[in-house]
Amino acid sequence: MKADPRGVLTGAHYLDGDHACAEGALAAGCRFFAGYPITPSTEVAERIAARFPECGGVFIQMEDELASSIAIIGAAWTGKKSMTVTSGPGFSLMQEHIGLAVMLETPCVLVNVQRGGPSTGLPTLPGQADMMQARWGSHGDYEIIALAPNSPQECFDFTIDCFNLSEKYRIPVLLMTDECVGHMTERVIIPQAEEIDLVERKYYHGDKSKYLPFKPDKDMIPPMVKAGDGYRFHVTGLTHDERGYPVMSWQCQEVLVRRLVEKIKNNADEIYRYEEENTDNADVVIVSYGISSRVASRAIDLARKQGVKVGFIRLIVVWPFPEKKIAELAAKTKALITVEMNYGQIALEVERCAHGKCKTLLVPHGGGWVHDPQDILAKIKEALQ
Amino acid sequence: MNPVDVSEIKKENIEYHPMEHLLRMDRIPHIWCPACGIGTAVTAFVSALEKAKPDLDKVSIVSGIGCTGRVAGYMKLDSFHTTHGRAIPFATGLKLANPDLKVVVFSGDGDLVAIGGNHLIHAARRNMDIVVICVNNFIYGMTGGQVGATTPETARCSTSPYGNFEPPFNLPLLMESCGASYVARWTALHIRRLTDSIVDAFNKRGFSFIEVIAPCSTLYARWNRLGSGLDIMKYYHEQSITRHNADPRDLKIDFQKPIIVGKFIDRERPTFIDAMNQRFSAVFGDRYTPYGVPAGPRSDEKEGVNA
Ligand code: SF4
């Protein structure tokens, strides 16, 4: 399916990451947005509020993040693509509804423009310390998809990808950006509508009386219907069977939650995305994502000038985590160095997947500003000692 | 005697419950206690659907969590059992994303007024075009009888074992002051009146709020030694005074004192979508296509609403 031209602002623009994200949502066909102001994500909501009236979309500023994050789930059940945007504290408040969207298998997109935490932390300064919260923040066991852009262009592109993934897998998809990317202005190219490929939601078309809302197809994803189409279906956040009816038993839990997990795990090879550079003969490989990956690039250049063979893997899809890829890199390099703006979150995943096959190191940073490339360079040298 | 398997009985010998077509019979028996007021509230709701005759395919029902939160699951409609307190913002998303839907929120006092209170007041303020049916039984039922934001003073609950000392919300006053278009209160035994109010709400454009005073026959009754569920249902009914258009300030509920019921508010205000369309049409002119308005003139549209 191609994009609806009404939402596509074709051309070359100078946009900050937040505005580019809003344009990505419009291009992806998002026509329902519920949000609550929070720095540094508010510009996304502002641009959507300005642009929606002429594109046929509905924008509502809700009373809080709890409301925003469930309004988009309600909207998604009418067939609309929906999104909300937040940061730090707001993301914490949205966790319960990320779980609800997982349980109801509702396509929707949530953007977290990360700032420094915990608590109110650093509202106007960057952080990358919500990465594990993105993975595990809602209670219960589940899989999630999260992408990390490192430029305004990627804020545009990846927002579209988030919608496509959410429609395909019937799952909430998280765009984990940060204050630096959100507020940096760069050139953003928005293509023609007909050049933008969108994934169409899979609908059920069979006999109405035989419809089972949670009966999966072979790909483990049940086809959806819309409210108002006469199916008279039921959905619940309780553990449910294929009819959508609550069943309080370990057997039903096993069937349902296993499928929710496996529909992502078993399709992970299709979902993983990363950029890999010079990893074949590298002595060390840097692992990074988001804004930190741009600083890491600078450090890698410096190291290469000094004759060190440094490889680079930049995670685009952070969740599901590219386990096999990291294991493969661990087997052929001396060290994996994770560069991220926290005290070790994705680094733990790298360590887990490296399985002791190589050294695993971290260049930590508490957030509030980006890394100093010299610190990364020092860690590269330390790894080689 | 073993339960009879209905499928073994000849079709012509089966008499169906008159409300079966609107209930998910494959989910009966329900979870509610005998003589719980939720059952009669559901009966009134079903009767109202039959009277108001909306296109049932276009009716969505949303519940939160709790005993009343289970209502959505028993209705043969598009039905959504959501999270605790958040039925209204879910319903807001449904309604705004597809204005053709008639959206009903059916939930309890703990869900709608305590944990969900913020959403309740904002939906009323926005005049979101939804119907909210709030079963008020003065207690948290599902979790075992705790005190709530609507428990009358001195009433005993498991977490107010010496009697509640917090003042309860006066819900009609709250809803009136927030801007609801329609506000009524009945007890669960006023089935006909309650049914009529739900029909009114169905035909009303704007935010409608109906409070249903209902016994929690198991917990509230036991904690307060009020007899059987039927006893308190009758008591509420007999002790109620119908006073339409009463001043909302006089509607506070005191423990075991007469309860004033009736239709209190019925007024016209632009809905969220009306106001949005008005504003954007004024700003954008022809570049704005009014949202949620079927093409061509609509007879029930008041002049100027979408101008
Ligand atoms: S606990 Fe109370 S409110 Fe819940 S079903 Fe029983 S009687 Fe009704």
Provide an overview of this structure.
The complex is a heterodimer of chains A (385) and B (307). Chain A has 385 residues and is an alpha/beta fold. Chain A has helices at 17-28, 42-51, 65-76, 88-103, 131-136, 152-169, 179-183, 250-265, 268-271, 290-305, 323-332, 346-354, 373-384; strands at residues 11-16, 30-35, 58-61, 81-86, 108-116, 122-126, 145-147, 172-178, 185-190, 234-236, 274-277, 284-288, 310-315, 317-319, 335-339, 359-363. Chain A has two domains: 11-195, Rossmann fold; 275-383, Rossmann fold (3-Layer(aba) Sandwich). In chain A, strands 2, 3, 4, 5, 6, 7, 8 and 14 form an eight-stranded mixed sheet that branches. Chain A is globular, with a radius of gyration of 21 Å. The mean pLDDT of chain A is 97. Chain B has 307 residues and is of the alpha/beta class. In chain B, 32% of the residues lie in helices and 15% in strands. Chain B has helices at 37-52, 71-74, 87-97, 109-115, 117-126, 171-178, 191-203, 219-223, 229-238, 272-284; strands at 59-63, 78-81, 102-108, 131-136, 182-187, 208-213, 240-242, 259-266. In chain B, strands 2-1-3-4-6-5-8-7 form an eight-stranded mixed sheet, sandwiched between helices. In chain B, helix 2 (71-74) links the parallel strand 1 (59-63) and strand 2. The chains are: A alpha/beta (385), B alpha/beta (307). The A-B interface holds A 31-32, 34, 53-54, 56, 58, 60, 62-64, 66-68, 70-80, 82, 96-97, 100, 226-238, 243, 245-246 and B 24, 26-27, 56-58, 60, 62, 72-73, 76-83, 85-86, 88-98, 100-101, 118-119, 122, 272, 276, 280, 283-284, 287-289, 291. The complex binds iron/sulfur cluster. Residues 32-33, 36, 38, 67, 137, 141, 216-219 of chain B line the site of iron/sulfur cluster (SF4).
